[in-house]
Each structure stands twice: as C-alpha cells, then as structure tokens.
Amino acid sequence: MLLAMLTSCLAPVARAESTTSCSDLANLKIDGIALTKAAPVPAGTTIASPYPGAPSIGPLPAHRRVDGVIHRRKGMDGEEFGIGFAVALPEREAWNGDFMMQGGGGGNGVIAYPFGASYSGDQQALERG
Fold first, then answer.
1. Cα 113 from Cα 119, distance rounded (Å)
2. b vs e for 91-118, b when ≥16 Cβ sit within 10 Å of the residue's Cβ?
3. Where are the chain's structural domains?
4. Rounded to two decimals, what is the model's pTM?
5. CA dist., res. 62 & res. 76, Å (int)
6. How many helices (H) and strands (E) in the chain?
7. What is the mean pLDDT of residues 86-96?
8. What letters, b where the CB count within 10 A reaches 16 and e where it falls short, cover 8-33?
9. pLDDT (tens digit, 9 = 90+) per residue, 9-59?
10. Mean confidence (pLDDT) of the chain
11. Which region, left, alpha or beta, applies to residue 105 given φ > 0 means left and ψ of -120 to 50 means alpha?
C-alpha cells in the first residue's frame, strides 16, 4: 500500500520535472515519506556495481535520482527503521509515461541503482524512458 502511495505521489513529480529543480524536489513534503536526496545524473554516467565481481551499470541516460524512506520510525534502543527506496526519473522529453518497479528480493536492505533490471528487454528501463 505504501509503495502504491509513493508511486501515485511521484508520477506527477516526474511530469513536472522540467519546472522543478532537484533541490525543490528534495524539499517536497509527502505524509509518511521522507525524501533524503534528489540529484541530477548526467548522461554517460557509469555506476559501479554494489556486488563484487558484477559488471558496472551504464552508461546511463541523463536522469534525476531521488532517494527516500517510507514509514520512518524508531524501534527499541532508538534504532531507526523504514523502507528505503530509490527512483530514477528520466528527462521529461525522454519519459514514455510508464513506471517500472524493481524490488529487493533476497537483497533487502540494499538499495540497488534504479536503472531498470537487465531482464526488462534489450534495453534497461531507464534507457527506454
């Protein structure tokens, strides 16, 4: 349910990308969601794999990466909990209007770069807009 809320909230953000700076996006307030980072990523960027021996990711098209936490809370002994996420928003001209989600699976606790998994066709989802 929280993911559906996030998706519905960030879709208008993606549409408004051309008029919203990354710093404005980082200050966006959505109940139950804390955006922790919003940064432009230039075309041609290559990202090192978080997994030893795995190939790097890229070169990527220009996009904005937005990171955040859903349902941030404190547990026992003040330990912080929440559901971390990362979203890659393609440039407005390149966005095809679709949304692709990739989950944590066995890698829960690790936020992989949100480029769109390689099994999503011949091109990564971010390359397809």
1. 15
2. eeeeeeeeeeeeeeeeeeeeebbbbbee
3. 2-107
4. 0.72
5. 41
6. 2, 5
7. 89
8. eebeebbeebeebebeebeeeeeeeb
9. 555 554 444 445 666 776 788 889 988 888 999 999 998 887 788 888 889
10. 78
11. left
